[in-house]
C-alpha cells in the first residue's frame, strides 16, 4: 500500500514537472518569437527610414540643382545677347562637377536649348492656313536623308498634322479630320487645337512609330520638334537635321562644316547669317525669317544617384529677357 502511494506520488510529481518544463519551453519559444519580430520590425523601420531619408535628400538636391541651372541661365542672359553651345550652361561636365562638389552628392545636370528645335504648332497660322516657311522646312526634313519620304507622302503627312491642329473640320487635300478617325472605329477625332505633347502625333494619320521615335540610324520627330516657344529656330544650337532642312541647296557636308564652325572659340555667332562665313557657304541662302541666335526655351534634366535610389527631374523653362519661368516640372 505504501509502495503504491509512493509510486502514485512520484508519477504525479513527474507529470507536474513535465508540464512545467513544457510550459517553460513554450514560453521561451514565444519570447524568442516576439523578440525576433521586434528585431525584424525594427530593421524594416530602420531600412524604410534610410530609404525615406535618401529620397528626401535626393529631392532636395534635385530642386537645388534646378535652381542652380536657372541661375546659370539668368546670368547668361545678363552677359550675352545670344545663346550657343559654347556657353557655360551648355557644358554638362563642368556644371555637374561644380554642383556635385557643392552638394557632396553625385548629381548630373544637363541643359539644352529647345529653341534649336522646330515648334510643330507653328505649322498652322491663326487663320488656319499653312505657315509656308515652316511647311517648307518640314517638307525638306521629311524628304531628306533621314526620313526619306516621297514628296507626296511628306505633303500628305503635313496635311494630316495641319488638320489635327486647325480649328475647322474640312480635310486639307489628303489630310484627315474627325470623320477619318471615326470611320476607322477610333474613339477620337482630330483635336482641332494646338498640340500639347509630341506623343499626340502618334495618333495622327501617317505618323508611324518609326517616323516618331526614329530608328537606330536616324532620329525621330520627337528629337527634332517641340510644342512650345517661338516660331524661330536658334541656328546656334539646332541639330544638324534641322539645319539641313533650312535651305533647298544645303548638303550634309555644309551642315558638318557649320556644326564645327559654331563650336570654335572666337567665331562670331551673333548674326543670323554667320553661316556665310563658313568656308564654301558664301553663296548659300537659308530661310532667315525663321532663324534666331537667341534661346527662349530650355530643358533641364537632373539625375541624382544614391546607394539605394536614382531620381530624375525634368523641367521646361521659358526665359524672357532676364526672367525665367518654369513651364513644366516632373520628378521621377
Percentage of helical residues? 40-55%
Fraction in beta strands: 5-15%
CATH architecture type of the domain at 2-115 and 297-331: 2-Layer Sandwich
Describe the global form.
globular
Question: In whole angstroms, how far apart are the ends?
Answer: 87 Å
**Cα radius of gyration in angstroms:** 33 Å
Main β-sheet, spatial strand arrangement: 1-6-7-8
Residue ranges: pLDDT <50 for 5 or more in a row? 1-7
CATH fold name of the domain at 2-115 and 297-331 = Pantoate--beta-alanine Ligase, Chain: A,domain 2
Could you tell me the mean pLDDT? Answer: 88
Our count of helices gives 9
The sequence of SSEs as H and E is HHEEHHHHHEEHHEEEE
- Structural category: alpha/beta
- CATH class (first level) name of the domain at 2-115 and 297-331: Alpha Beta
**Superfamily (CATH H level) name of the domain at 2-115 and 297-331:** GSPII I/J protein-like
Largest sheet: 4 strands, antiparallel
By DSSP, the count of extended strands is: 8
Can you walk through the features of this model?
The protein has helices spanning 2-79, 92-103, 132-143, 151-165, 178-183, 209-213, 221-224, 240-244, 252-263, and strands at 106-113, 118-119, 225-226, 233-234, 291-292, 297-305, 310-320, 323-331. The protein has 332 residues and is α/β, with parallel strands linked by helices. The protein has a domain at 2-115 and 297-331: 2-Layer Sandwich (Pantoate--beta-alanine Ligase, Chain: A,domain 2), CATH 3.30.1300. The strands form 3 sheets. A 4-stranded antiparallel sheet has the order 1-6-7-8. Strands 2-3 form a two-stranded parallel ribbon. Strand 7 and strand 8 (323-331) form a beta hairpin. Helix 3 (132-143) crosses helix 4 (151-165). It is globular and about 100 Å long. The model is unreliable at 1-7 (pLDDT under 50).
Amino acid at each position: 500500500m505504501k509502495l503504491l502511494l509512493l509510486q502514485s506520488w512520484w508519477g504525479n510529481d513527474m507529470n507536474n514537472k513535465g508540464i512545467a518544463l513544457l510550459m517553460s519551453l513554450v514560453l521561451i519559444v514565444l519570447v524568442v518569437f516576439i523578440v525576433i519580430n521586434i528585431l525584424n520590425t525594427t530593421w524594416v523601420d530602420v531600412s524604410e527610414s534610410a530609404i525615406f531619408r535618401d529620397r528626401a535628400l535626393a529631392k532636395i538636391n534635385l530642386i537645388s540643382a534646378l535652381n542652380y541651372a536657372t541661375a546659370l541661365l539668368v546670368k547668361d542672359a545678363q552677359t550675352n545677347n545670344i545663346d550657343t553651345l559654347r556657353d557655360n550652361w551648355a557644358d554638362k561636365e563642368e556644371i555637374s562637377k561644380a554642383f556635385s562638389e557643392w552638394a557632396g552628392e553625385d548629381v548630373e545636370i544637363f541643359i539644352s536649348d529647345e529653341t534649336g528645335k522646330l515648334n510643330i504648332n507653328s505649322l498652322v497660322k491663326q487663320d488656319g492656313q499653312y505657315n509656308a516657311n515652316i511647311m517648307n522646312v518640314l517638307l525638306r526634313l521629311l524628304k531628306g536623308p533621314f526620313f526619306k519620304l516621297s514628296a507626296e507622302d511628306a505633303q500628305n503627312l503635313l496635311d494630316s498634322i495641319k488638320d489635327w491642329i486647325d480649328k475647322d473640320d474640312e480635310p486639307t487635300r489628303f489630310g484627315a479630320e474627325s470623320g477619318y478617325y471615326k470611320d476607322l472605329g477610333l474613339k477620337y477625332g482630330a483635336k482641332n487645337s494646338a498640340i500639347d505633347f509630341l506623343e499626340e502625333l502618334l495618333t495622327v494619320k501617317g505618323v508611324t512609330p518609326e517616323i516618331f521615335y526614329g530608328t537606330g540610324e536616324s532620329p525621330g520627330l520627337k528629337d527634332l520638334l517641340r510644342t512650345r516657344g517661338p516660331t524661330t529656330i536658334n541656328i546656334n544650337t539646332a541639330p544638324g537635321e534641322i539645319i539641313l532642312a533650312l535651305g533647298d541647296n544645303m548638303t550634309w557636308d555644309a551642315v558638318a562644316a557649320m556644326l564645327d564652325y559654331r563650336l570654335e572659340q572666337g567665331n562670331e555667332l551673333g548674326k543670323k547669317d554667320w553661316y556665310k562665313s563658313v568656308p564654301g557657304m558664301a553663296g548659300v541662302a537659308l530661310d532667315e525669317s525663321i532663324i534666331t541666335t537667341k534661346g527662349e526655351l530650355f530643358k533641364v534634366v537632373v539625375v541624382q544617384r544614391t546607394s539605394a535610389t536614382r531620381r530624375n527631374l525634368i523641367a521646361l523653362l521659358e526665359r524672357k529677357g532676364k526672367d525665367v519661368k518654369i513651364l513644366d516640372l516632373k520628378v521621377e
